[in-house]
Amino acid sequence: MDEQEYQRKFLNLKILKEIQEYLKSDTDSNTAVYPIKVPQELLYQLVKLQGAEGADEAINRIFRMGLTFWSERLFEESFGTAENLKSFIDVVRRRNKT
Q1: Helix, strand or coil, per DSSP, at residue 25
Q2: pLDDT: which is higher, 31 or 16
Q3: Is-contact 67 25, C-beta < 8 A?
Q4: 2-19: average pLDDT
Q5: Burial 17-37 (b: 16+ CB within 10 A, else e)
Q6: Whole-angstrom Cα distance, residue 43 to residue 52?
Q7: Which has the closest alpha carbon to 18: 31, 8, 6, 7?
Q8: Has residue 98 got a pLDDT over 70?
Q9: Contact 91, 13 (CB under 8 A)
Q10: Count of C-beta atoms within a 10 Å radius of residue 83
Q11: Residues 77-96: pLDDT tens digits?
């Protein structure tokens, strides 16, 4: 594996780890990005049916679902299998020892 591939995989591993931690937590993230674009009718109907707080929770659930799907694809593209991930982590550990 050349240095460029190593760096790409290492950054993807960091991203996947952070996503995993975010998805495990029940608390709000300490980082927020606004505004996000959502279909106007979706937002209108969610607020109408569930109130502003319910709409916010629904949009957060939708975001988490999308993030889960996206991270699964990133994992697949970067490592493919759990065994390949473990092998890469072993490479990282060996490099960090030197």
Answers
A1: coil
A2: 16
A3: no
A4: 95
A5: eebeeeeeeeeeeeeeeeeee
A6: 9
A7: 31
A8: yes
A9: no
A10: 9
A11: 999 999 999 999 999 999 99
Listed in sequence order, the residues at least 6 apart from 61 whose beta carbon sits closer than 8 Å to its beta carbon are none
Name the DSSP class of 46.
Answer: H
Domain containing residue 46: 3-97
pLDDT at 28 over 80: no
Cβ count near 61 (within 10 Å) = 10
Number of structural domains, the chain? 1
Task: Give yes or no for a contact between 74 and 12, defined as CB atoms under 8 angstroms apart.
Answer: yes
Which one-letter DSSP state was computed for residue 28?
P
Sign of the C-alpha dihedral, residues 17, 1, 69, 66? positive
pTM over 0.90: no
